[in-house]
Amino acid sequence: MRIAILDDYQGIAMKSADWSSIPGHPEIKVFTDHVSDLEKLAQRLLPFEILCLMRERTPMTAALIERLPSLKLIASTGARNAALDLEAARRRHIDVLHTGYFSTPTIEFTWAMILAAARNLTTENTSLRSGGWQIGVGSDLKGKTLAVLGLGNVGGPVATIGKAFGMRVIAWSPNLREERAESSGAQLVSKAELFREGDFLTVHLVLSPKTRGIVGESELAVMKPSSYLINTSRGPLIEEAALIKALEGRKIAGFAVDVFEHEPLPLTHPFRRLPNVLATPHIGFGSQSLYETFYRDSVTNITNWILNQPGRDR
Fold first, then answer.
1. Which of 117, 148, 309 is nearest to 226 (CA)?
2. Residues 99, 77: contact at Cβ < 8 Å?
3. Which residues have a Cβ under 8 Å from the Cβ of 142 and sit 6 or more positions away?
4. Alpha-carbon distance 75 to 52, whole Å?
5. Which residues are identified as catalytic?
6. Which of 98, 193, 199, 269 could join 144 via S-S bond, C-beta 3.0 to 4.6 A?
7. pLDDT tens-digit series, residues 6-40
C-alpha cells in the first residue's frame, strides 16, 4: 500500500501523528510543494492507492481522478472539501473520509489581522527592521463599527469578540435573521448599510455559486476611504480586479487577506507589492492543535479503512 501526503508546505504532517501505526507498514511519500499542472500532477500521483489531502490545496477534479487507476481512498482533512469532486470519486468506487475540524484558529487569526491592519504593524515592523522608527498612526477599535459579512461558525464569534473591544457590530448575509444576529451581539442591517457604515468589514461566508463575487465594484465603491476589508474566508468571495483597482486608487484604507483566488499566490500578483495590503499565505486555520487533529484523524481513518478491506485477516 502506498500513501501520498499532499501539499505539506510546513513539513508538519509526519510530526503531527504516528504514521507508523498504520497496518502493513505502507510506503508513505510526503510532498511539500504544490503542482497545478494536471498532467504533471497525475504522473506524480499515479502509483498511490491512498491520497491524504490538506483541505482545498490540491483540487481533486474529475479529470484528475480519472487519471489515477490505482486510487482507492481519499483521506481529506477537514469536515468538507469543496475542491473534491465527490461524484467522480463515487463513479470510480473510491472511498472518501474526512476528519474533525474546529474554527477557533481562524477566529483568533481574523482578530490578529484586524488588529495588525488597525495599528499598521506590517509597515511599522518593516520600518524598524530597516533602521527606522515610528512612521504612522494607527486606528482605535473602541467606538468603531465592525461589519461582519456572514455570522456562521467563524463570523458569529468574531462579532461577539468585537463587542468586547467596545465596537458597534453590524451584520448581513443573504439568509441572516434578526434573532441570529442578536445572539452574536450584532445588529442586522442591509447589505448596502454593511458596506457603507463598516470601519472594519470582515468576510465570513461559505463559497458557493451564490456567494462568489459577493463583494464587487458596487460594494467597494460605498466603503469609507478610512475603512479596512478583511478576508480570512475564501478568495473568490471578492472580485479581485475590482479590489485591486480600489486599493491602487486608495478608495479604501487597506486590505488584510489570508486567502486567494489562486494558491499559492503568483509571484507577480499585486497583493505582494501593494503597500496597503497585509497578506499572509493561507495560514489562518493552521494551528498546531488543528494540524494534529487533521493528521491524527487521517491516520485513524486510513487504519480503519485498511482493517476493513475485504479478505484481510483480522
1. 117
2. yes
3. 165, 166, 167
4. 5
5. 234, 263, 282
6. 199
7. 999 999 999 999 999 999 999 999 999 999 999 99
